[in-house]
Design brief:
This protein is mainly beta and 195 residues long. It contains 2 helices and 11 strands.
């Protein structure tokens, strides 16, 4: 593989906005909710050898035969030092490219409860989380949109979890303190779950 930079790249650009509120009726209790939206155009990344070899017709321009390889590079490829009959593959070009766009939206929330101290100590309860309402991306400009939310996606290299949250129950008493923390992540459908 030929990997690395690419002087023909155009810069990534993004537009983002968020709107939300914080509700705090007293010093002990607060709740916040934010809705956010991000759009990234001209994502920079690599297509990957799996995709390149998976559609040789579409990515034929990324295959370099021994006869077309630069002389200096050809000397470093054992199979191309002397071009054998049939003109074998020297390497694939897997450098950074502009791969398309990404659009994602979601909600962030936070709940905090910190009541006054008691004879048994000071307790606190905090809950924070993120819920993804949309995550779609393209692997090439103007190409098909993929949705990895809750589903394994080979083009993404995994999945996007719909919901994540952390609940923390805290306690303090003089020089002592303790926390009970619960992390939650929603599941996803694996690529071979139907097998």
């Amino acid at each position: 593989q030929l990997q690395g930079g690419n002087d023909k790249l155009t810069p990534e650009e993004s537009d983002a906005w968020t709107i939300g509120f914080v509700f705090q009726p007293n010093p002990q209790f607060s709740f916040s909710l934010d809705y956010w939206s991000y759009e990234i155009t001209n994502n920079i990344g690599v297509i990957g050898e799996t995709a390149i070899f998976g559609d040789t017709a579409k990515y034929s321009n990324l295959f370099v035969r021994c006869s077309a390889a630069p002389v200096a590079r050809k000397l470093t490829i054992p199979g191309c030092a002397q071009v054998p009959p049939g003109d074998p593959l020297a390497y694939i070009v897997n450098t950074n490219l502009n791969l398309g766009d990404t659009e994602t939206t979601g909600l962030d929330f936070a709940f905090n409860f910190n009541p006054a101290a008691t004879q048994y100590g000071r307790f606190s309860l905090n809950w924070r989380g993120t819920y993804i309402t949309k995550y779609e991306f393209q692997v090439e400009p103007g190409g098909r949109w993929f949705n990895p939310v809750g589903n394994y996606n080979a083009e993404f290299g995994g999945s996007v979890l719909r919901f994540k949250s952390v609940v923390a129950l805290g306690w303090e008493q003089n020089a002592w303190s303790g926390n009970l923390i619960y992390n939650y992540q929603s599941g996803y459908r694996d690529q071979n779950s139907g097998v």
